[in-house]
Every structure is written in C-alpha cells, then in structure tokens.
Amino acid sequence: MTHSSPPVRCEELTVGYHGEPVLEGVSFTVETGATLALVGRSGCGKTTLLKTLAGILDPLDGEATIHGTRVPHSPPGGELGYIPQSLGLVMHETVLTNVLHGRLSDLGAIRSLLGRFPTDAKTDARDAIERVGLGGYEQRRVKELSGGQRRRVAIARAFVQEPRVLLADEMLSELDSETAHSIVDCLATLQAETDMAAVIVEHNLTVANDISDTVLRLGTGGIEERIERTRDPVSRQRHE
Ligand SMILES: Nc1ncnc2c1ncn2[C@@H]1O[C@H](COP(=O)(O)OP(=O)(O)OP(=O)(O)O)[C@@H](O)[C@H]1O
Ligand SMILES: [Mg+2]
What we know:
Helix content is 33%, strand content 25%.
C-alpha cells in the first residue's frame, strides 16, 4: 500500500460469476474526497462491480485497488465502508449494537461479541444514529423497523467507521425525499471532514448527478457513458 495511490482504481476490470463476465473492461479512478456514481438498468452489474470492489467477489480479469491494495485483499482496518443493497444487518440485535459493529475492526471480534464496547465508541454510534434521524431508536431491534429505517441503520454503521472509501449500494432507496436529503447532507459533511472517497450505486439519475463528480452509466457488458460533473460546492453541502 502506498499513500500516493488513489482511493479507488479499476483497470480493465472484468467482473462476474463462475467465470462468466457481467461487465468487462471497466476502468476508472476515484480521487480523495470525490464521489463516483454507478447508474444503469436493473441487472446490468452495478452490485456485482461494487461487491468486487468490496472484496466479496474475485475479479475475473484486470485489476482493482483500494488505496493501493489489490482486491479481493482487504485494505488495513477501517479503510473500507460497505453498505450492501441487502444491508447485512443483524435483525434480532438493537440499532445501537448494529451500528457499533461498524467499529468491529477497531475493537477486535471477541470484545465486540462480548458486547463490551468502549464509551467513546458508544458516543460515536449514538451520534451517527442521531445524524441519520433515528435518535431514540437505539434500543429497538432492527427486525421491528421499517425498510427505510433499516437502511438508515446500515448507513450509520458505515458512517461510524469513518472509512477512507465508502461503497454504497442504493443507499437512498426506500427513503422519502426529506430523509434522503438529510443523508446526502451527512455524506457531504463526512466527506468534507475526512476526505472520504465514495462509489455509490444510485438508480435515480438526477440524484446521481447532484451528488457525484463522475457518473458512469453501465450498459450491457460494460461502461456505456462517462459523465464528468462540476459540482457547485454550495449545493454539494446543502442538497436542497
Ligand atoms: N450470485 C450470483 N450468481 C450468478 N449470477 C448472478 C448472481 N448475482 C447476480 N447475478 C447476475 O448478474 C447480473 C448483474 O446483477 P447485479 O446484481 O450486479 O445487477 P444490478 O445492476 O445491481 O441490478 P439492480 O439494479 O436490480 O440491483 C444479473 O444478470 C444477475 O442475474
Ligand atoms: Mg443491485
């Protein structure tokens, strides 16, 4: 790993399942503090690409790196935050415990399994829960929440990790526009504070355009269009 490497880099990357490509020849770079949005019709391979960047799927060909570490190897702890489309929450556990799982790599698995989270981790987790608008829900079990509330728990879990790279799969779906705007504000604040880079899957093209520096439109088998955006820093901070 070198610090001169960009947060995310793909070079002629081929992704897919069981040796069968879904997307081929994907190349892009995401610089520090920048956001890249992946758009495209259902089934074109957005999640497959994101899972490959997250190290869940092996690349079929080409190369992808996160801060210089070649996927599927994991970059050092805390570097990568992933919000899966399926959320990956522990349904019978509380909101607070799920969000604290974002700190697993700091704490060590055994300590967290024993439920012994240090006070500062709890303070940060409560703060993240508040920021996604779920203050007061800390002790509620995730299985008792709505789809949009669950999504916000997954967002808080990723935010509390303060990752250097965030991979988010349809983070804003199931949310009303007011809640979605407040999550976009949270993301902008986190990026301003930490220079985090983000790769987001977003099916709403208007939202994708608003919150990203680059939009990649994926089509059958690969990148169909690459749109470079010039974001107004004010609208980036206050997405209204
Ligand atoms: N585990 C799997 N094994 C084999 N093929 C898969 C698997 N998961 C997805 N696929 C296939 O890979 C292709 C891309 O799926 P993917 O989930 O990446 O699409 P997507 O762009 O994220 O779609 P959506 O917008 O509906 O979430 C689809 O044809 C899908 O059927
Ligand atoms: Mg998907």
